[in-house]
Amino acid sequence: MALEHAIQTRLKSMLERWQTQRTIGYPQLQPGPTNRISDVHGVKVGHVTLNEGDIQTGVSAIVPNDDNLFVKPLRAGAAVLNGFAKPIGLTQLDELGILQTPIVLSNTFSVGRLYTGVVRYSISQNPEVGRELATVNPLVLECNDGFLNDQQAFALTESMAVDAITSAQSDFARGSVGAGRGMSCFGLKGGIGTSSRYIPELDATLGVLVLANFGRLQALHLEGLAIGEWVETALTEVAAQRDAGSIIIVMATDAPLSSRQLRRVAKRSGAGLGRLGSYWGHGSGDIAVAFSTAHEAAHDLDDSHLEELLCAAAEGCEFAVLDALLQARPVTGFRNHTRMALSDVLDYLATTIV
Q1: Active-site residue 246, yes or no?
Q2: What does UniProt give as the signal peptide span (predicted)?
Q3: What does residue 351 show for φ and ψ, rounded to 5 degrees?
Q4: Phi then psi for 110, rounded to 5 degrees?
């Protein structure tokens, strides 16, 4: 009984702080100025969003800088936490350790068209790609938004990939936008979330952007509390979700890391997912990609200095998913399926528990 009382006290404290400060979680590391991936200089994000009845989907693009990436590729690394996924471009990125295009995110059935769109974008910058020049390796990553979006409509087009890239800005929307429009997370509304962490010892920033579409509601943990149990009890109308929908994690840093080191940093995102209650379920495609914008670094960072970046990767991922959950608004879409917003759920719990 004493333990139950202690848990109830912690839950009430968390909900009171949510009501007064609208924040969840205790970051250990210092966020960047805007707490977005774009705190890494040059990084921009663009969205194209479709909100048309059964069509609840979109495209999001992460643009690392204004350079022609085919001519000036960036070092990159990837970690496949669970490979139930249909990416394009991941095998060559893993083999060569370089990023040649902006990163495009969307739903599973749209990967092919968006791949062609990114190829056309690269050709517009480099007219001899695939002729006198080598072919390009677009990176297109996906999650299954089929609960809220009719993927068989094939509503996304090649030009939307280009539009997302060319409209990218450092100040961008989060939540139920772009590729995140139809995504679900822990049985609630998921989508696009972001965070950043500044490491004073390195004078470096690590930024994170997620496309969050994973997790079972019963497993949801906030600040170490298994809050999913209370949500499930209080809101019986929440539709079940297996830990099977996937998450894409994109990390950017201005630290001079090698592709091997970036792969190590990307892998630590899994620790952040675990803090929230994910176990990378059977049908979940959980993929992290990290790139460095440090083109002209005099030397790579020594491994002994990686510790804070590894910590930032775990914490940054956790808080980017929280950002997606808290920024998302409710969406009703395909076959009248609905996902509620975590912010509304917390407000409701606060009125019944606090």
Answers
A1: yes
A2: none
A3: -75, -20
A4: -100, 0
Phi and psi at residue 129, to the nearest 5°: -60, 130
How far is it, in rounded angstroms, from Cα 204 to Cα 53?
43
Q: Are strands 331-332 and 285-292 parallel, antiparallel or unpaired?
A: unpaired
Under DSSP, the state recorded for 182 is: T
Candidate list 176, 284, 292, 343, residue with the active-site label: 284
Identity at 257, one-letter amino acid code: L
271, 314 Cβ separation under 8 angstroms: yes
Please give, one letter per residue, the 3-state secondary structure of 218-249.
Answer: HHCCECCECHHHHHHHHCCCCCCCCCCCCEEE
Active site residue 106: no
Model-wide pTM > 0.85? yes
Of 145, 163, 243, 286, which is the active-site residue?
A: 286
- Distance CA(194)–CA(179), nearest Å, equals 14
Model confidence pLDDT, tens digit, residues 235-288: 777 777 777 789 999 999 999 999 999 999 999 999 999 999 999 889 999 999
Q: What is the pLDDT of residues 272-285, one digit of tens each?
A: 999 999 998 899 99
Q: Which of 106, 122, 184, 246 is catalytic?
A: 246
Which domains can be identified in the chain, with CATH numbers? Answer: 19-353 (3.60.70.12)
CA distance 111 to 217: 28
Helix%, strand%, coil% for the chain, nearest 5: 35, 25, 40
